[in-house]
Write a structure and sequence with these properties.
Oligomer: single chain
Distance between the termini: 51 Å
Shape: globular
Number of helices: 18
Strand content: 15-25%
CATH superfamily of the largest domain: HUPs
Largest sheet: 6 strands, parallel
CATH class of the largest domain: Alpha Beta
Radius of gyration: 24 Å
Length: 580
């Protein structure tokens, strides 16, 4: 085990690599007789040239770091583009695009639920002048769809689409309200009205100027209570099947190895896979994580590098904030640091292990649906706010907060109603809102650095979880699963059970002063941050400038709001907090 005593920022990925290897894809409807002109900076044309006398229907461009595969089908004349990672347990990779096209053209798309990974499939049906798009089961691959002057326009990032000059339709203030209060866009609609994300698990069709989506899978709920052995076997069989499909053509991966159960489970599956080289990285901001990760690596005989912070998590990044594909600022997380150690090498990710294998996301305020007597959207909203530790809502206009909450509750009531039939509405909303538009930052944040392999996310696992009583899933059950299949790790506790008295002292971030300064400079404009109580905020920002630890959160929270407002101002997007 190698211990790195210098701040991890010294090992961060060089900015020029990121800029020149952007993992982004965009597409738009071609205009007959109009020469090709690419409005998306930093991308190159990958459109399949005209075949058998039929012109191009869809122009496709991609950044240098995009993982794109193309396929032309002679019988149908369809051109297929795959962006991202897609696999099937029973279909060879070399035949997969042909198989997907056959399923879509066959009219019954239900078999697509067996495809795993994070992907977008574009099908340019040139003979019929029709475009179809397939999203992965959870819609994790970012893809925003709209139109401009009657032409289809779609792509992986809304700000890039806006910069290319397309009509964004103005700001979606429902989404802004949700982002302000709940950290993420629970509306599932994105920042701009005209470019919402594609639905999850759908075949979308653009035909003669019309757009529609059809979900290709169904979820059946239930309250079955299998015995522990049956439950554990069912979990393991589905996860390992997905793991094998996603990794069978890989010879090298990295993994962010924390002290928890998810990453050690994937590490053990990886060690069992012959011919797969694994490098593990533990980003150690708490000593307990490093201890548990070291124990796991020794038990599995897995090479491990422990990357230590200098006392501040935010000092690990050249810039801790980035913009999501949907348009909102959000902070990077530790998995970004781990993935950045091996740029271009797929990174095994424990993302989605928590909702699938434990019971934490089946509950609100530690209660199952049947134990809650209040309106579920109200409890969901309240529980999220109570966990929002990096917020200072007392510095904002109470009227804006009140209007935001009204908007949010209207959205949440619609979301919960969509999942009531399963008997698991809390889990359902978590899957398509919280996981898809918030927790997915764990994998999307390093999309330009390294692709993520997420074996926990599959239709099989989601259906299995929804079929059973949520009370069946717990930390104890997950622990028994690990003990059963990987007994060599049975002596290793979860890192939360390891008590350490020698954690490094938390130090102020070098970013705090910069954040506070940026907000204060922005406030020099009279119309800036209109939702802010300046009388309360300015003294606290000044305190953050002097290094006061008690007001660091003020600088971070307000800088987050400042980033969105400033991006809109610089891009000449009309934006007003009072429109919430």
């Amino acid at each position: 085990m190698e211990l790195l005593d210098t701040p991890i920022v010294s090992k961060s990925i060089p900015a020029p690599w990121v800029e020149s290897r952007t993992n982004a894809v965009f597409a738009w409807g071609a205009e007959e007789g109009v020469p090709f002109s690419n409005p998306f900076e930093g991308t190159g044309r990958i459109t399949i040239p005209p075949r058998d006398g039929v012109g191009v229907g869809l122009e496709v461009v991609a950044g240098g770091g995009a993982n794109v595969e193309t396929y032309f089908d002679e019988p149908s004349g369809c051109c297929v583009y795959r962006w991202g990672i897609v696999a099937h347990p029973d279909v060879a990779q070399s035949e997969l695009l042909k198989w997907i096209l056959g399923v879509v053209n066959g009219g019954d798309a239900s078999a697509l639920c067996q495809a795993v990974g994070t992907f977008i499939i574009l099908i340019d049906d040139r003979r019929n002048r029709r475009v179809r798009m397939v999203s992965d089961v959870l819609g994790l691959r970012p893809w925003h769809v709209g139109q401009h002057r009657g032409r289809l326009v779609c792509g992986s990032d809304v700000w890039s689409i806006q910069q290319a000059g397309f009509d964004m339709g103005g700001v979606n203030y429902d989404a802004v309200a949700a982002w302000v209060r709940m950290i993420f866009d629970c509306t599932e609609k994105g920042l701009f009205k005209n470019f919402p994300p594609i639905g999850y698990g759908v075949v979308a069709t653009w035909d003669a100027g019309g757009y529609g989506e059809l979900r290709y899978f169904k979820i059946e709920g239930g309250q079955e209570t299998p015995g522990p052995g049956e439950l554990i076997e069912g979990m393991h069989r589905r996860i390992s099947r997905t793991f094998d499909a996603l990794t069978r053509d890989l010879d090298r991966v990295s993994i962010a190895l924390s002290g928890g159960f998810d990453s050690r489970y994937l590490a053990a599956l990886g060690v069992e896979r012959k011919g797969l080289k694994i490098e593990a990285f533990c980003v150690c901001d708490e000593e307990s994580e490093g201890i548990a990760a070291d124990m796991v690596a020794r038990a599995l005989k897995l090479p491990l590098q422990v990357l230590r912070t200098d006392g501040s998590v935010w000092n690990m990044y050249a810039e801790p904030f980035h913009f999501t594909p949907g348009g909102f600022p959000i902070t990077k997380q530790l998995s970004h640091v781990a993935a950045s150690q091996r740029p271009g090498v797929p990174c095994l990710s424990g993302f989605f292990g928590d909702p699938m294998n434990r019971g934490s996301l089946d509950r609100l305020e530690e209660k199952l649906e049947r134990e809650i007597r209040e309106d579920l959207p109200v409890v969901y909203h309240r529980s999220f706010l109570s966990n929002h530790t990096l917020a200072r809502f007392d510095l904002l206009d109470p009227k804006v907060i009140e209007r935001s909450d009204r908007r949010i509750l209207e959205v949440l009531r619609r979301r919960f109603a969509q999942w009531t039939h399963t008997g698991h509405p809390i889990l359902g909303v978590s899957l398509v809102a919280q996981q898809r538009h918030y927790m997915s930052n764990n994998i999307l944040q390093h999309l330009h650095v390294a692709e993520a392999i997420i074996p926990f996310a599959s239709w099989e696992s989601i259906q299995f979880k929804m079929r059973n009583d949520a009370a069946c899933f717990s930390y104890d059950v997950y622990g028994k699963l690990l003990d059963t299949y990987f007994p060599q790790m049975s002596h290793i506790p979860h890192n939360s059970k390891i008590v350490c008295g020698n954690d490094a002292a938390v130090r102020p971030s070098r970013c705090t002063r910069k954040w506070a300064m940026a907000v204060l400079q922005g406030l020099l404009r009279s119309n800036s941050m209109s939702l802010l109580n300046r009388r309360k905020a300015v003294p606290r920002l000044m305190g953050a400038m002097t290094g006061r630890r008690d007001v660091e959160v003020v600088a971070m929270f307000l800088y987050r709001l400042h980033l969105l407002e400033e991006r809109c101002r610089r891009r000449e997007v009309a934006f007003d907090w009072n429109e919430i």
